[in-house]
């Protein structure tokens, strides 16, 4: 099967900046691009195929015609399981929380949202919000939302390039200004906003808060420490290549692949599709009847059962699949 280069759906939320245009060449109707949805079959913004037989059609349409491209590991999901974004936070995002599957399916009619952040780049002293400082009661949380003091109880974390944060559903969180993030998440757009710094939306009114729903779903104790996976440095013909698992859960598995003028080979079998998001540099991809250059910013969907592929070059990318 032929790999598909994808064009992203773009979002111009009020906190967004210009880095996705400047660094990755994303082009939208607005100078401000807050998010680019790099791999998406969500109704709120679908990836579009850039070339080939399906050029101009959505990835969702392609998968309807080629359901085997998802792989056998995706059969347990009712819809496409993941959504992958690039996020440029010129300003702080709202403090928010996402529900789990049970609550979201019952109340919102879609999956909940567990996600993972990979810090692509950040300004000096940039920080994000990850969970709470300490265990609190529901009443204390409710009071903090009512009195606009929630910023006093959240856990702030300084970040650097390459950091990874796993944000389980129910974890209160926010990306801080000056951070460029790759986000791998469940296929959901359900967000409960609890604090927004008094900002107003495009209509001139304060943006909606979702206090009651947030009270229902927020975990009221500090989040667990991030799991650190070992880095695998490959030898032999793969010298100069490193592969590190950075996120592994029931919804997705993501690895960071770095090539330093080197080679990486793998088999894309019948179990899962594979998605590459090239963050830096470029490489050549070779496979059965396939030879293409993957440059910085390339979003590539490789169908399940595509077989052996090889990457050769000098680049950094994220590889996501379903296990």
For the termini, the CA-CA separation is: 20 Å
Number of strands: 22
Task: Say what oligomer this is.
Answer: single chain
Contiguous runs where pLDDT drops below 50 for at least 5 residues = none
Mean pLDDT: 95
Summarize the helices and strands and which ones pair or pack.
Elements: E1 4-7, E2 9-11, H1 19-22, E3 35-39, E4 41-42, E5 45-46, E6 48-49, H2 59-65, E7 82-89, E8 95-97, H3 101-107, E9 115-122, E10 127-132, H4 138-146, E11 154-158, E12 164-167, E13 173-174, E14 179-186, E15 192-195, H5 211-217, E16 231-234, E17 241-248, E18 253-268, E19 274-287, E20 290-295, E21 299-302, E22 307-321
Antiparallel strand pairs: 1-6, 1-21, 2-3, 3-7, 4-5, 7-14, 8-15, 9-12, 9-14, 10-11, 10-13, 16-17, 17-18, 18-22, 19-20, 19-21, 19-22
Give an account of the 3D structure:
With 323 residues, the protein is mainly beta. It is 11% helix and 41% strand. The protein is built from five helices and 22 strands. It has helices spanning 19-22, 59-65, 101-107, 138-146, 211-217; strands spanning 4-7, 9-11, 35-39, 41-42, 45-46, 48-49, 82-89, 95-97, 115-122, 127-132, 154-158, 164-167, 173-174, 179-186, 192-195, 231-234, 241-248, 253-268, 274-287, 290-295, 299-302, 307-321. Strands 1, 6, 16, 17, 18, 19, 20, 21 and 22 form a nine-stranded antiparallel β-sheet that branches. It starts with a strand and ends with a strand.
């Amino acid at each position: 099967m032929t790999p598909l280069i994808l064009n992203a759906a773009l979002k111009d939320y009020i906190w967004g900046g210009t880095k996705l245009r400047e660094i990755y060449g994303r082009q939208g109707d607005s100078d401000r691009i807050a998010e680019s949805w790099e791999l998406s079959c969500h109704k709120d913004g679908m990836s579009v195929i850039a070339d080939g037989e399906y050029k101009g059609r959505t990835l969702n349409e392609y998968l309807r015609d080629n359901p085997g491209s998802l792989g056998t590991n995706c059969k347990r999901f009712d819809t496409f399981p993941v959504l992958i974004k690039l996020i440029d936070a010129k300003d702080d995002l709202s403090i928010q929380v996402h529900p789990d599957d049970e609550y979201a399916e019952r109340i919102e009619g879609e999956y909940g949202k567990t996600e993972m952040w990979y810090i692509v780049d950040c300004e000096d002293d940039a920080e994000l919000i990850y969970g709470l400082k300490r265990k609190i009661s529901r009443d204390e949380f409710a009071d903090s939302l009512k009195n606009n003091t929630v910023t006093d109880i959240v856990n702030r974390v300084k970040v650097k390039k390459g950091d990874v944060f796993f944000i389980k559903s129910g974890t209160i969180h926010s990306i801080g200004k000056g951070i460029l993030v790759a986000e791998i998440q469940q296929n959901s757009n359900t967000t409960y906003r609890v604090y927004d710094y008094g900002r107003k939306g495009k209509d001139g009114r304060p943006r909606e808060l979702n206090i009651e729903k947030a009270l229902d779903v927020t975990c009221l104790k500090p989040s667990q420490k991030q799991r650190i996976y070992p880095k695998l440095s490959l030898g032999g013909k793969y010298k100069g290549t490193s592969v590190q698992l950075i996120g592994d859960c029931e919804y997705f598995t993501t690895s960071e692949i770095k090539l330093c003028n080197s080679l990486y080979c793998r088999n894309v079998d019948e179990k899962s599709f594979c998605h590459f998001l090239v963050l830096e540099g470029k490489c050549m991809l070779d496979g059965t009847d396939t030879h293409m250059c993957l440059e910085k910013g390339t979003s590539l969907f490789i169908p399940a059962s595509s077989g052996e592929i090889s990457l050769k070059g000098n680049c950094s990318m994220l590889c996501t699949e379903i296990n």
